[in-house]
From TrEMBL:
Residues covered by the ACT domain: 284-361
CDD domains named in the record: ACT_CM-PDT (cd04905), PBP2_PDT_1 (cd13630)
Source superkingdom: Bacteria
Organism: Zestomonas carbonaria
Subcellular location: Cytoplasm
Name of the molecule in the record: Bifunctional chorismate mutase/prephenate dehydratase
Entry's Gene Ontology cellular component terms: cytoplasm
Its biological purpose: Catalyzes the Claisen rearrangement of chorismate to prephenate and the decarboxylation/dehydration of prephenate to phenylpyruvate.
EC annotation from Swiss-Prot or TrEMBL: 4.2.1.51, 5.4.99.5
Sorted UniProt keywords: Amino-acid biosynthesis, Aromatic amino acid biosynthesis, Cytoplasm, Isomerase, Lyase, Multifunctional enzyme, Phenylalanine biosynthesis
Catalytic activity: chorismate = prephenate; prephenate + H(+) = 3-phenylpyruvate + CO2 + H2O
Amino acid sequence: MSDADQLKALRVRIDSLDEKILELISERARCAQDVARVKMQTLAEGEKPVFYRPEREAWVLKHIMERNQGPLDNEEMARLFREIMSSCLALEQPLKVAYLGPEGTFTQAAALKHFGHAVISTPMAAIDEVFREVAAGAVNFGVVPVENSTEGAVNHTLDSFLEHDMVICGEVELRIHHHLLVGETTKTDRITRIYSHAQSLAQCRKWLDAHYPNVERVAVSSNADAAKRVKSEWNSAAIAGDMAASLYGLTKLYEKIEDRPDNSTRFLIIGSQEVPPTGDDKTSIIVSMRNKPGALHELLVPFHTNGIDLTRIETRPSRSGKWTYVFFIDFVGHHKDPLIKDVLEKINQEAVALKVLGSYPKAVL
């Protein structure tokens, strides 16, 4: 068989497979509609339907990754199914998601990575506004940054948990690539200032010291805002990601300029619904301890005794008094697990206050 005949046969085979894929996706979408009808029929009077189940979605994506045999890698396959699930869920009820804006931020990228592109996403000007939108019921969920692998905790998010009663429903980790972006009118040999968010400037500090040591670095509210400013200036550049570059039509003068190749940011999904155990969960709590010697040791002993893996601990000033502090702690397990229940009971005996922010599936993507 000639090469031309082989190509023709392969294309016919691909066309046939595409038709089968189309048929199966349509069948899945119809099943999603049937699920929505069943849920509506079984509701008690005045009860609101819950269409989005984080634990169910996490299980499906993990199951897909376990069953995947290539040649597409596990994450790529899971992302494809994430979008199919997002579109099917939108047939039941489109999710409304608030995120730290404006458009083009890494937080928006995290929201779309977690929920898929079929959601209705709304940018907010500040982290506290994301919390307020969720608390008011104007959106189903919010997405906020909580920590970066290079620069540490995002304190605005931690402080917002002290002021609002929110449930953490999920997490998403995003690999952060920073690019130096310029506009059509930028004179690249005469750049006098570089805009970006303060954390992004910090994450690219060594690169900037080496390549633009004498250029002014201007911290702005977000990377997307930085990209927007560069659009209309001939002597400036911006540090931002792919979404901002695409949204504002900028060109990458240099790619991947972050100092650490493993630079990542973790985001939290906040909402109002508690998430059942999946068997692969994390829990976040806030603890306020009495200001006395050994307080932190007393707090950590129950975790050590029960062999619970702590993944993060942060300290923030308490709002209740000068020189008193609260601890934000993340650990492996669900608050309904017997071992975790025992730990929380022991902590509660010593703590001034203990608040479980939520138990949720570990990030899949």
